[in-house]
User: Fold Glycerophosphoryl diester phosphodiesterase membrane domain-containing protein from Pradoshia eiseniae.
Amino acid sequence: MDKPIREAFSLFSSRFEHILLLGVTIVLPLLLLHSFLSNYIMAVTPTFFGTTIIADVYISFLTILLLLYAQAPFIRYMFNEYQGNEGSLRNAYYYFFVNGFEFFMFAVVASLIATLGLVLFFIPGLIIITLLYPIPFIATMENKSVWKSVKSGLRLGRKHFFKLFILVFLFAFIELFISSGITLLIYSLTTSFAAQLLAHMFLNLLFFPIITLIISGYIIKWREEIYTIEKRETEEGWT
Assistant:
């Protein structure tokens, strides 16, 4: 894959109904769950010296968990389309439902480690997120257990650390910037919480899939580069 961003936008536009269906059936329920749990956490968690820092830690853990978990069907769909496989949408659903529990358990462990890193040192937390991020992508593309993909995922994460770091957190910053703009715009029109919630969910239904498709494209490209180098080294070793 030579141009991941162009390929991702091309897929998004040409298969918009499939991407939207995945978003409505998988991402939307998780967004509703996130909203409910976040509000519940804020309501029941005691403040710390007048701040909500404890609740923020719980919500950060929940956000990273659901982010990692929700990516799987989009990664699978992107990879199926790249491979030219038939029934990409059906296979994406099948893969997600069959392997969903394993991905959820990985997301729990990865989110816990990343959140602890963010709380204790912050920068190490960002590094941990970046290094762990490719693992579910590799597992999905190679059709392997996510736990058996840790080594190859970490290797790819280390090799392309700065590129991946910039991609992940640049998109996070862009989403935050757009989200803040929407919040200010809606507050200028109405103070309705429902309006805020619906607007942000709509944004995430569009933004989350395209980010996942773009990063999937880059990981497909980097994965192929690694395999090409390894094959060349193996061939040279035999000569």
